[in-house]
Design goal:
globular, about 400 residues, mainly alpha
Length: about 400
């Protein structure tokens, strides 16, 4: 019995990174509170104001994390497949096997129960034609978007589509200047697009939910991931990871306390700065693991909650009970009841849909990075000329 318990704990401990799991959980809970009317829950105080004004920035945490984790995974996979096509198709298959099945289940729920959910102001009804559009992640390209929070998933899915192609392109470039220009251009393009759209008197929230105007967090994470695996000076970064973490936290906290997220200048330029300073946290958090003496319930609880973040994202606007309609002490009761229902629904979606498809994916494709024959240059001989490669990092994909 004890050996089985140890095996279960190791299942949660080994493939995960505690620091990144904690960051993922913080982002998920922040988004839930942001969409649940934090001013009604916390009151009109500093805490409620921060969540109400700047809670939307939690999406950028997920973007930076995705850019970091998936770029590292794709770069490791590159040396394990015979052809670029095999790498690209395998990467896409792994990502879509994880994200699409739970998403389609939620879309079908909206299709079937859309009118009832709309009466509770939870979601807009969805027709069959619109279901197809949303299933193909075209709802922001061909509006309207009936599942409002899905704009960020659309951004992620287009990133999944482009990432292996951009990596293949990067490895064909011989010039460091071209590589640098490619990275800087990808990083600055969303800021340029936001500037044009916001200064033309467009609705600010419509602009901020456009993937093409908001993907710089993914690029920040991707550039840091590429640097961590290919550039020799990354060891210097890791040696200063505590200082970077402290400075990043200080700047991010200052921005949140100042309430800058609601200003025009921040929406144009600050989102890029916010993502960059989030990147300052990754060197330390990516090395933060559970100690062997950590209690099993804590290890399993944090890991499981981190695994629930995607179902929580998909379901949180469908299950909230609007604690904003409650008054006095009852608002806390409504909040706890709402969170309990959400956690239960997310657990059902995770165990009933997400995990079975992940198991099937791993059975058919194997763990990321498995392959029979490498092609092209080794990652350690990247176009930058770097000969350094950090130790592999566990990734819960």
């Amino acid at each position: 019995m004890r050996g089985r318990l140890v095996a279960i704990v190791d299942h949660y401990r080994r493939p995960r990174v505690l620091g990144l799991d904690l960051l993922r959980i913080v982002a998920s809970l922040t988004i839930i509170l942001y969409h649940g009317d934090p001013m009604a829950l916390f009151g009109r105080n500093e805490v409620g104001l921060i969540f109400h004004t700047d809670g939307y920035l939690a999406v950028d945490i997920f973007f930076v994390l995705s850019g970091w984790l998936l770029t590292r995974q794709a770069l490791r996979m590159r040396g394990s497949f015979r052809t670029p096509l095999r790498l690209t198709l395998t990467f896409w298959a792994r990502r879509w096997a994880r994200t699409i099945p739970p998403y389609l289940v939620v879309l079908v729920v909206i299709l079937v129960f859309g009118r009832q959910l709309a009466e509770r102001d939870l979601v807009q009804p969805l027709s069959f034609g619109e279901l197809l559009k949303h299933a193909l992640f075209l709802q922001t390209v061909v509006p309207p978007n009936r599942f409002a929070v899905s704009w960020s998933l659309v951004t992620e899915e287009w990133f999944y589509l482009l990432l292996p192609l951009m990596i293949l392109l990067a490895f064909t470039l011989r010039s460091r200047r071209l590589l640098l220009g490619l990275g800087v251009g990808a990083l600055l393009l969303p800021t340029a697009i936001r500037s044009l759209l916001l200064l033309s008197s467009a609705n600010s929230w419509d602009v901020l939910s456009q993937p093409v105007a908001r993907y710089e967090g993914l690029v920040v994470g991707a550039l840091l991931a590429a640097a961590s695996l290919t550039l020799p000076w990354w060891e210097t970064v890791m040696a200063r990871r505590r200082w970077l973490f402290g400075f990043g936290c200080l700047v991010l906290a200052g921005l949140l306390v100042a309430g800058a997220g609601d200003s025009l200048w921040f929406r144009i330029f600050g989102l890029l700065a916010f993502s960059i300073f989030l990147g300052f946290l990754l060197p330390l958090l990516s090395q933060l693991h559970w100690p062997k003496s950590a209690p099993a319930p804590a290890v399993m609880g944090i890991a499981f909650l981190a695994e629930l973040t995607y179902p929580l994202y998909l379901l949180h606007t469908l299950t909230k009970l609007h604690w904003s309609r409650a008054h006095g002490q009852t608002r806390l009761t409504y909040a706890l009841l709402s969170i309990g229902i959400l956690l239960l629904a997310a657990t059902v979606l995770h165990l009933g849909i997400e995990r079975p498809f992940l198991a099937l994916r791993d059975k058919l494709a194997g763990p990321p990075g498995e392959g029979r024959k490498a092609w092209g240059r080794d990652i350690r001989r990247a176009p930058s000329g770097a000969a350094h490669m950090t130790a592999p990092q566990p990734v819960a994909d």
